[in-house]
């Protein structure tokens, strides 16, 4: 990519080699860094998922001991959430938001550099806990006290520091996005003309700024409980273990929308392009996104129905939670209406976007089922929830990132993706991911708890099928690495327009996008 | 072995597809929630089926439209894009319809929840306390108290023996309850958060240190129900099942009397002086239930995960007083080492300490008597 762009801007005095990437303040470079970081973490977190699925392939303890198994589920969750999905979305934002609103760069380019370069250090520190005495964190990605405080290994303090650093990075990234969207739009690009991807990220950025400090508060209380004799979460000292869950989920529930709202934005860009028809209900999409963001703050305790909440609390959180189905349904209906009587073609990005609509809907429905408190007394902490959030986060958020990569790779690299390989990757992934996660619904309903390294015999068949799907899905993403590298290195030249039905400012610049774009602001009519 | 289980797995995938297609009974395949054994669990099951069917119907409706559109409105079939992209009426309609469906779901959900949470006027109460990694049951009206831990042999878990029918679902001392009595469970924990769950009762309840949560059930038929800990509680979270036996009033009374007799026998056993062989035999079984999850059957521990070895350790081969202290009062530095003084009686403690001091090649020759334990308490 760098060789292709140097011709366009030989006046640019930037360092070469590794120093280019360390000192860069260019939104495209930083976007690329974020995306490669995300991809690397996806493969590391994915490798951990393979360990989990290998251990669960058959009943009995075969490969790892239970403590290490717990470390794997914990690190898999943390790495995928904080290392793969969130940085992946920020990478897309960095590349696309300036291009989509006609800005020359992000508003705060130096902070942009800083917010990326914190990540590799935080990620390395988190992963280094695996090699420490007593092992890595083994208390689940939700790190409930007191398992994560009094009963946790010494490496937990490193985990706490890593989470703090990840939080700093996210907050800086969010500030940058808000500053960019509010200040850097091209003339004529009013808020209600912004592409939906920009809108969803703009709202997500507010969520990030609101909840990352809450997470920082939770881990800081853990830190002082562990090391300085406080008892925030220790009942023996007058503290409250359930307080931890309240604080965590006040962060954690908006967090899941932080991961999915930008995905909604991506899908809302791709479907109109390949349906050759304007997005149906643009303003209702914006309002639905804002409603979901607002509701995300007031529903969080639906994660805690079994903790012994008062009935009034359970009723309130049940009613509030199921309300989220309304704006979410509006979004799915709007995508459907966009496709309806369009003129569709099915290039690789469209396939991933359509798979998103189908499979995210399944995840949405199981989410609604779990919002019903009395039924959740059965679903809670079983493989049903594991199936639910993997449908939402893998076939939801991750599929959207992959769709976005296929959609914008020609703009980023100047080369079209090999459609044949892209379609193989798609069908391989979409089949295997369902073999992987669909049986987990059955396992959960039949009574298999989550986070167990071994299980009773009635769960053996579905676990084996799920594991086979898992290995196939994991391998498919290694194939994706190959496709991406192949596209960067060569392929059919992409035009500036790239896709026949594409609209928006990013398609008005050449492919690959020059190192500096929109130095003179475009006029949006 | 592998080929056989793979074939079994593929058969069941095929079987499930046929069953789903034919809409037959799901009884042979673990696909769905259990209807359970109580009125409450039936209500929860009915609610589950209702919301499940609504979700499937709506989902299939949307999918049908999408699939029709995907096959019809495609460029290769010469479709020309329409220009509509907004309709306030449509938006209002498809905001209102989901809302009304949700209200329809919320009404039965509310009545079920209120029934589920109504723990008033129980006939009897049992306190359930979660420990890493076993359950303790205290019958508050009967002065009966015992621990319930996994009974599956280690060899089955490690693949050295054929796995039994109730692999990981069997315990040494099941909780026994009478039928036709409203039983209130008071659920708490001694260390980390656990969750007590028997699917047939229709609910799970978190066991949280410092809190006492309550839940209730009333079983109609005698029977045996199995469940598991549902909240991650550390290393052996997957190995702390629940077995609940419901008995008729008459059988239940007999069981209560038997328990009281056993408690009296234990008290008598504490007063006598035990021989080395008897202590070692009893100690081995106490060790298997309470100690070997961390310290391992060989006494080698799992040092990498923070669980020290007993084989040749300074505690197990040093002064008896130090060994008694850490077993009775727990690890000062390492909270993973629980205070077993609160969990085991003097005979079991004497037996297990004697065992640890003489097994694994420790061979100290020390014999610890129940009276030594009582003195060290």
Keyword list:
heterodimer; A: 525 residues; mainly alpha; Cytochrome C Oxidase, Chain A; 16 helices; 0% strand; globular; disordered N terminus; B: 377 residues; alpha+beta; Immunoglobulin-like; 4 domains; five-stranded mixed β-sheet; 11 helices; 44% helix; elongated
Provide structural commentary:
The complex is a heterodimer of chains A (525) and B (377). Chain A has 525 residues and is mainly alpha-helical. Chain A has helices at residues 2-6, 18-23, 27-55, 66-101, 109-128, 156-183, 196-227, 241-275, 282-297, 311-323, 325-339, 348-371, 373-379, 383-413, 419-445, 460-489. In chain A, helix 7 (196-227) runs parallel beside helix 9 (282-297). The radius of gyration of chain A is 23 Å and the shape is globular. Chain B is an alpha+beta fold and 377 residues long. Helices cover 44% and strands 16% of the residues of chain B. Chain B has helices spanning 2-22, 39-72, 88-116, 154-157, 249-271, 276-290, 292-295, 314-317, 320-329, 346-358, 370-376, and strands at 124-131, 134-139, 144-148, 175-178, 183-189, 194-198, 203-207, 213-217, 223-229, 241-247. Chains A and B meet through helix 4, helix 8, helix 9, helix 10 and helix 11 of A and helix 1, helix 2, helix 3, strand 7 and strand 9 of B.
């Amino acid at each position: 990519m760098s060789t292709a762009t140097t011709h366009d801007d030989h006046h640019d005095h930037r360092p070469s080699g590794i120093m280019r990437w360390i000192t860069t303040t260019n939104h495209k470079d930083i976007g690329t860094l974020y995306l490669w970081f995300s991809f690397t973490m996806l493969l590391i977190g994915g490798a951990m998922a393979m360990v989990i699925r290998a251990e669960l392939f058959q009943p009995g303890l075969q490969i790892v001991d239970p403590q290490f198994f717990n470390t794997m589920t914990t690190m898999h969750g943390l790495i995928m959430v904080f290392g793969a999905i969130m940085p992946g979305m920020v990478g897309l934002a960095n590349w696309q938001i300036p291009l989509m609103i006609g800005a020359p760069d992000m508003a705060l380019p130096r902070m942009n550099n800083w917010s990326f370069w914190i990540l590799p250090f935080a990620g390395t520190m988190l992963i280094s806990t695996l090699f420490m005495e007593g092992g890595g964190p083994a208390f689940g990605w939700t790190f409930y006290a007191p398992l994560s405080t009094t009963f946790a290994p010494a490496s937990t303090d490193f985990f706490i520091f890593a989470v703090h650093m990840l939080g700093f990075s996210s907050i800086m990234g969010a500030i940058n996005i808000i500053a960019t969207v509010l200040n850097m739009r091209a003339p004529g690009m009013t808020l209600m003309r912004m592409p939906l991807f920009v809108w969803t990220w703009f709202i997500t950025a507010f969520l990030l700024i609101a909840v990352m400090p809450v997470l920082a508060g939770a881990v800081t209380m853990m830190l002082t409980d562990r090391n300085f004799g406080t008892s925030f979460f220790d009942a023996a000292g007058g503290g409250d273990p359930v307080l931890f869950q309240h604080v965590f989920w006040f962060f954690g529930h908006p967090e899941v929308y932080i991961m999915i709202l930008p995905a909604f934005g991506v899908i809302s860009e791709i479907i109109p392009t390949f349906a050759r028809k304007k997005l149906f209900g643009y303003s209702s999409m914006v309002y639905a996104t804002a409603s979901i963001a607002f509701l995300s703050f007031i529903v969080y305790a639906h994660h805690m129905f079994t903790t012994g909440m008062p009935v009034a609390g359970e009723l309130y959180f049940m009613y509030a939670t199921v309300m989220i189905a309304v704006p979410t349904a509006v979004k799915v209906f709007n995508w459907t209406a966009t496709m309806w009587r369009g003129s569709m073609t099915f290039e690789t990005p469209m396939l991933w976007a359509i798979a998103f609509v189908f499979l995210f809907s399944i995840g949405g429905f199981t989410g609604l089922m779990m919002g019903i408190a009395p039924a959740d007394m059965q679903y809670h902490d079983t493989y049903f929830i594991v199936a639910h959030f993997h449908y939402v986060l893998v076939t939801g958020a991750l599929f959207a990132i992959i769709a976005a990569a296929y959609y914008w790779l020609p703009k980023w690299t100047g080369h079209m993706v090999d459609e044949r390989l892209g379609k193989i990757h798609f069908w391989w992934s979409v089949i295997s991911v369902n073999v992987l996660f669909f049986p987990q619904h059955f396992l959960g309903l039949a009574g298999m708890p989550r986070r167990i390294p071994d299980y009773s015999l009635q769960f053996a068949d579905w676990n084996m099928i799920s594991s086979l799907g898992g290995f196939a899905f994991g391998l498919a993403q290694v194939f994706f690495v190959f496709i991406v590298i192949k596209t960067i290195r060569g392929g059919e030249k992409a035009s500036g327009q790239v896709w026949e039905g594409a609209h928006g400012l990013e398609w008005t610049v050449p492919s690959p996008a020059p190192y500096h774009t929109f130095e003179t602001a475009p006029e949006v009519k | 072995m592998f080929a056989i289980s793979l074939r079994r797995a593929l058969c069941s995938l095929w079987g499930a597809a046929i069953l789903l297609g034919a809409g037959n009974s799901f009884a042979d395949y673990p696909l769905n929630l259990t209807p359970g054994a109580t009125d409450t669990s039936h209500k929860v099951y009915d609610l589950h089926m209702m919301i499940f069917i609504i979700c499937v119907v709506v989902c299939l409706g949307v999918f049908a439209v999408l699939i029709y559109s995907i096959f019809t409105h495609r460029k290769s079939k010469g479709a020309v894009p329409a220009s509509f992209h907004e309709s306030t009426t449509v938006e209002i309609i498809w905001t209102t319809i989901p809302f009304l469906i949700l209200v329809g779901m919320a009404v039965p959900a509310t009545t079920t929840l209120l029934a589920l949470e109504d723990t008033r006027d129980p006939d009897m109460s049992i306190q359930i306390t979660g420990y890493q990694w076993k359950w303790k049951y205290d019958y508050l009206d009967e002065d009966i108290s015992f621990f319930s831990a996994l009974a599956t042999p280690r060899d089955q878990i490690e693949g050295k023996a054929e796995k039994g029918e109730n692999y990981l679902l069997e315990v040494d001392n099941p909780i026994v309850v009478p039928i036709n009595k409203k039983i209130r469970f008071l659920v708490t924990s001694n260390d980390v958060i656990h969750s007590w769950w028997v699917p047939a009762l229709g609910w799970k309840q978190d066991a949280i240190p410092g809190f006492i949560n309550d839940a209730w059930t009333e079983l109609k038929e005698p029977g045996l129900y199995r469940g598991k800990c549902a909240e991650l509680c550390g290393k052996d979270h997957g190995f702390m099942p629940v077995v609940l036996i419901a008995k008729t009033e008459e059988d239940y009374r007999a069981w209560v009397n038997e328990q009281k007799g056993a408690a009296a026998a234990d008290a008598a056993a504490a007063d006598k002086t035990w021989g080395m062989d008897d202590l070692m035999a009893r100690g081995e079984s106490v060790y298997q239930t309470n100690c070997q999850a961390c310290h391992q059957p060989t006494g080698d521990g799992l040092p990498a995960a923070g669980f020290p070895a007993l084989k040749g350790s300074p505690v197990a081969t040093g002064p008896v007083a130090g060994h008694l202290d850490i077993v009775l009062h727990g690890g000062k530095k390492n909270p993973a080492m629980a205070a077993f003084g609160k969990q085991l009686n003097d005979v079991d403690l004497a037996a297990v300490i004697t065992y640890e001091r003489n097994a694994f090649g420790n061979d100290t020759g020390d014999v610890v008597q129940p009276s030594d334990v009582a003195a060290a308490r």
